Every structure is written in C-alpha cells, then in structure tokens.
Amino acid sequence: MSTLADFPIASKWPASHPDRIQLYSYPTPNGRKVGIMLEETGLPYEPHLVTLKDADVKSPEFLSLNPNNKIPALIDPDGPGGEPLGIWESGAILMYLAEKSGQFLGTGTQRWETITWLQWQMGGLGPMFGQLGFFVKLGGKDIEDPRPRERYINEAKRLLSVLETKLEGYEWVAGEYSIADMAIAPWLGALEFYGAKDMVGWADYPRVNAYFDRFMARPAVQRGLNVPDAG
C-alpha cells in the first residue's frame, strides 16, 4: 500500500498532518475554487503554498504530481479503496471532492446541469477571462495592436451575457448552490484584479452582479479566498 511519503511532492512541501487532504495551490481564481470547496465541505485538509514561479510549478517535485505545471493539485491520502490519490485540474478536483463529500454536485438532472456549467467555466469563462487579463493588465498590456484586447473584451461581454440570461429566475446556475458556482464566481472576481470591470460593462449585468454578491457573502467563500495564505 502506498503512502503520502511515496509522492515526491511531499519532500518539497512536507505534511504536518499526513492524514489530511494535501492541497498544493495559490490564491488565483483556479486555486480559490478548491480552497472554497474544501471550506464549504468541511473536509480536513492541509494547504501548501505553491507560488507561480518556475522554482515551484516547474520543480521536479511539483511536476511529479501535475505534469502540466499549473496549480492547483491535490493528494487525498484516503482515496478510492483507501489508497492515496493524486489529482490535478481544478474542475476534476471539484468533481472528486463533491463525490467524496456527497455535497454540491446534485443528482439526476441537477447533476448534469452542474457538470455542464462547470465545463462552461473550464472551457470558456476561465480561459477567455485569463486572456483578457493578459492583454489588459499583464504581459500583453503594452501591445499597440488593439485587436487582441478588443477580441477578449468582446468575448468577456458575450460570456457575461450568457450568464446573465441563465440567472433569470435562478439564484445559482444549476438551481442549488454547487461546484459550478465555485468555479464561475472566482473568475468574475478576477475582473476587479484586472481592472477590466468598466471595459466589459459590468454594471450592465445586474443578475450577475447580484449572483457575485451572494457568492461573496458566504462565510466559507470568505475563508477560502486566501487559501493557501499568500501573505
């Protein structure tokens, strides 16, 4: 039977509580999804701060768990059959934790509605908002050609319109609060960090605004926003 000590990542980020879920992350939108989920479920976990620097995310130890060199990643010492499980990709982690805890995934129709909106975030909202941030605040902000920036501004507006339409008559995207909301809302919060709220017309989406406020008012969300603590 393998143990946590058999994972090379544990040598760089040693566990103080090896019986708990080990989270390797940083408080970006993708990292916050999982911190919030762990706080919402109450599953015992130990967070490890993995910076976005090459010395961390491209270290042999981190790559041994996540060959895609992106946070978050996770080891559950009590995985299926009692064996430790290493897992990466935020959407996969959310689904795993939902099934392990029996929370926030739903059953029947709602389960598939939740998965659909989770995939919408993974394939659309996150990547497109991330590109928007690159061209507005990060490495692409000094590019003189306006077309890349305009492309992602327009795509952000389109995605916000999709969400605005979906939220008519709904408090949460799949009916009940779920991992889909935990995936979507942290990326909405990224617009503030990017300084992009005005350029995408944030005020033009009142349902999205109210949805984000509901999300941020949850105590577990507030606890999970800075997991792991980046100082």
TrEMBL record:
<dbReference type="InterPro" id="IPR040079">
    <property type="entry name" value="Glutathione_S-Trfase"/>
</dbReference>
<dbReference type="InterPro" id="IPR036282">
    <property type="entry name" value="Glutathione-S-Trfase_C_sf"/>
</dbReference>
<dbReference type="Pfam" id="PF00043">
    <property type="entry name" value="GST_C"/>
</dbReference>
<dbReference type="InterPro" id="IPR010987">
    <property type="entry name" value="Glutathione-S-Trfase_C-like"/>
</dbReference>
<dbReference type="InterPro" id="IPR004046">
    <property type="entry name" value="GST_C"/>
</dbReference>
<comment type="similarity">
    <text>Belongs to the GST superfamily.</text>
</comment>
<dbReference type="InterPro" id="IPR036249">
    <property type="entry name" value="Thioredoxin-like_sf"/>
</dbReference>
<feature type="domain" description="GST C-terminal">
    <location>
        <begin position="107"/>
        <end position="231"/>
    </location>
</feature>
<keyword id="KW-0808">Transferase</keyword>
<dbReference type="GO" id="GO:0016740">
    <property type="term" value="F:transferase activity"/>
</dbReference>
<dbReference type="Pfam" id="PF02798">
    <property type="entry name" value="GST_N"/>
</dbReference>
<protein>
    <submittedName>
        <fullName>Glutathione S-transferase</fullName>
    </submittedName>
</protein>
<feature type="domain" description="GST N-terminal">
    <location>
        <begin position="18"/>
        <end position="105"/>
    </location>
</feature>
<dbReference type="InterPro" id="IPR004045">
    <property type="entry name" value="Glutathione_S-Trfase_N"/>
</dbReference>
